[in-house]
Amino acid sequence: MNTIKPQKTGRILIIDDQPENIHVLANILQKEYEVQAATNGAKALEITYGKNPPDLILLDIVMPEMDGYEVCRRLKANKQIRDIPVIFVTVKKSVEDEEYGFNLGAVDYISKPFQPTVVRVRIRNHMNLKLKTEILEKLSLLDSLTNIPNRRSFDKELQREWKHALRSGHPLPVLMMNVDHFKHYNDNYGYGAGDECLKHITEAMNKKLRRPLDFFARYGGEEFVALLPNTDAPGTMQMAEQLRAAVAEANIPHEYSDTAPMVTISIGVATHSQETPKASLEELLMAADLALYQAKEKGRNQVQTDSPI
Question: What are phi and psi of 60, to 5 degrees?
Fold first, then answer.
């Protein structure tokens, strides 16, 4: 009879200069979690900054060269890993010691010598809390109607791609998209039908954005936005036209539109590149918004750009 091994529910890094302490904690935890270990602060930081950072850190305070307080301070100074929970494992039990650790960003203390039940319960509680927090964070970055990234998520991605574009010199195109005459659609077909319309539009455009680099989000209401990092001007316009055509070809009836008998979109394109440098993110977004305004003014259901083709 085959036995089913329990699935491990996270990765824990144990940092302690005494290998026997690491061994004791690992024996307590290894049935439920994947366990990593480091016997000094430098190695611990190397592991945490790596490709597979831990989900939780158990950190001894008294260590040579770099003590636990300094390790914690450096962890919390890094934006990428500062949210990893740190639990101090120590013989230091005074109120002053605990207060100092909590002020550095630790979430809990476990006293030596270890009580296995206490260790398991405290770590399980913090791992569950971290999991729930991560789920809520992911949900906060998704649009609840279309299930694609929302404006908050777009703002974060735009900041990241902007910094990358400045470093690399690669172009960063932004596409601002607006559903034509959507108010008329809602007023005549109802808001429930309007919601379904937005879902169909999202699906139609999502099928065209296939590169891992491409980022597509709902900007708000009937507005959508896309980032096409490292795409030249002709490639950007080609993709924008494909998105416009995809919505039209979805053939969603809209008899109250002044533009076409089906739902259509207008698209404004702006690109930060060596040929058309933008001074700031705000200028890039304003340029895309102005191009969108021009697309509407010139009859809608079309693409306009601020960049030479």
Answer: -70, 145
